[in-house]
Amino acid sequence: MNYPILSVVIWLPIAAGLMVLAVGDRHAGAARAIALAGAIAGLLVALPLWTQFDRVASGFQFTEFAPWIATFNVNYHLGIDGMSLLLILLNCVTTVLVVIAGWEVIQNRVAQYMAAFLILSGLMNGVFCALDALLFYVFFEATLIPMFIVIGVWGGPNRVYAAVKFFLYTLAGSLLSLVALIYLYIVAGGSFSLLDFYELPLPLDVQILVFLAFLVAFAVKVPMWPVHTWLPDAHVEAPTGGSVVLAAIMLKLGGYGFLRLSLPIVPDASQELAGFVIALSLIAVVYIGLVALVQADMKKLIAYSSVSHMGFVTLGIFIFSAQGVEGAILQMISHGFVSGALFLCVGVMYERVHSRQIADYGGVVNKMPVFAALFMLFAMANSGLPGTSGFVGEWLVILASMKVSFWYAALAGSTLIFGAAYTLWMYKRVIFGAVANPHIEELADINKREMFVLGVLALLVLGMGLYPAPLGEVLHESVNEILRLAAPGRKLLIGM
């Protein structure tokens, strides 16, 4: 590439967001149009990353480097591998769909709403591209601000409580990671480069402390049990677009952090404490799956489902096998499609009935057959049905788990039962049966805009489920490199 493509991928959506803010609410139509153009442009400039990515090369590609804060040797250093590439594309696609989904739904402060998602998209791309630890931290923390505003301004009745809880949980968790990064900066002789951190020899006791600092930050973001309690509140109160981006992209920052920082920087501590992380992951898969079964609010049920499914991600990562790590990354991508689609489906019904309570529905298929068919596909994908994207990552993680322990695989596999139970039970009560109340009687099927958004996600869910090979080809070398860096004893320093 003869131009700084990663910088364009990061800053173009942010610039578009600032343009939307400049236009303001007095020209809401123009603000929507600019937001959509900015989101589509953000996706189009990212597509060459896919077409020109070298699938057989290890290491980072499309790298950029420039001094940023020279006094402290902080640099604007960017680069991506296969994992970053897939998450960037997921982010760009999701942003386009969220802008379209909010086109008619959002009527107050339209410009600020659209701008928040565009700026958030650019910041999350920055997280996935950053190869300087301080740059990574700045982007990582900056993503909190737009989402805090989205929940706090356009959310439900308890939006302020949910927004503050979300902000405080994630900020407090991240502060320990900043302390760890500053320590590594000192040990590295004044460098914040992640590539330098990867080569630092550290004694095991120091590695464990650094790992725990990272664990707190990334566990909250995933979120892992027991620091998951902010997520249901945030999802219930967030507008539909906020729930979609939170589930589809922001939760992935935690899994990405484990793979980009924890495993390569402190490999021996990661191996040493893998059993602890796996235990937390399996508790999330099983216990939170049971919690989802008793939810009366559709959004809260899907939120708990996200915690359970993200347990697969951390389980796959800490098995330390190519199959497990690839399964974890593919699960992140699939979860982005499926959870985003489910929240959009709930949003479609909420805009018509103004309730998220399962008991207020019933017989929707009689009035919205097209919607019911699409909702069924996403429910099946959430249950891990073969042929959908939900099966691919979970199956790889279960296979990798079986090679380590039968009980890991058995407990992980229980999500296929619990997931089907809570998802299909919700679907049955909402969609099937006789028309339950006059509000359902008045429903109209999805319009062209809603059909486009859900149709795109349906194609992605089916495409990944039926032919996941292209995604695996992108990941192979990147996963092998991560596992090479995470090899036990590779840089252990004795007696420091």
Residue share in β-strands:
under 5%
How many helical elements? Answer: 22
* Nearest-integer average pLDDT: 87
Strand order of the largest sheet: 1-2
Which descriptor suits the 3D outline?
A: globular
Contiguous low-pLDDT stretches (5 residues minimum) are none
The helix content, as a percent range, equals: over 70%
Please identify the structural class as seen in this structure.
Answer: mainly alpha
Largest sheet, strands/sense/barrel: 2 strands, antiparallel
Number of strands: 2
Written as H for each helix and E for each strand, in order along the chain, the element string is HHEEHHHHHHHHHHHHHHHHHHHH
Give Rg in angstroms.
22 Å
**Head-to-tail CA distance between termini:** 43 Å
- Multimerization status: single chain
Architecture overview:
- The protein is mostly helical.
- The protein has helices spanning 5-23, 28-52, 82-101, 110-129, 133-142, 144-154, 159-187, 194-198, 204-221, 230-237, 240-250, 252-265, 267-272, 274-293, 298-317, 322-353, 369-382, 389-404, 406-431, 438-441, 448-466, 469-485; strands at residues 61-69, 74-80.
- Helix 18 (389-404) runs antiparallel to helix 19 and helix 18 runs parallel beside helix 21.
- The mean pLDDT is 87.
